[in-house]
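Students often ask what a 'structure token' actually looks like in practice. Rather than answer in the abstract, let us consider RNase H type-1 domain-containing protein, a protein of 136 residues. Its sequence is given first.
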Amino acid sequence: GKKYKCNFDASFNHENHHSNVGWVVRDHCGIQCFWGSTSIGQTSSPLEAEAKALLLAMQQVWCTGLRSLCFEGYCKTLFDVLEKKSAEFTIKKICSDISYWTSKFVECKLQHTKRSNNIPAHLLAKKGPPNSIFFS
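Now compare that with the structural description of the same chain:
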């Protein structure tokens, strides 16, 4: 089947701890298939927001029927935790949820990328709707 890539990102407000997440799915030619953003309310840290962004992106993509994807983000700490290179107790539960969702896909790669490759997802997370979900 065709290969798809999903870039995800989170924004974190340091004053009120409010977070938004955004995701963009592209096909093997780089054409945007769909995207979305939503508020996820309060998070304890930027790392928790990033972990929830990945989890939410996986769930939203699952709903579209796609089963073979690479999920890309630029939070190196998150990928280190997911690859068990470092431990981070604060997101342990979310990481086990991410593992569960990873196993549901036929093919699911989690990949770190540089910030410049993640701009559309970043903009969606930054400009996300204050208390609803937006989906293309």
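One point worth highlighting: Residues 4-135 form a domain with the Nucleotidyltransferase; domain 5 fold (CATH 3.30.420.10). Ask yourself how you might have guessed this from the sequence alone, and why that guess would often be unreliable.
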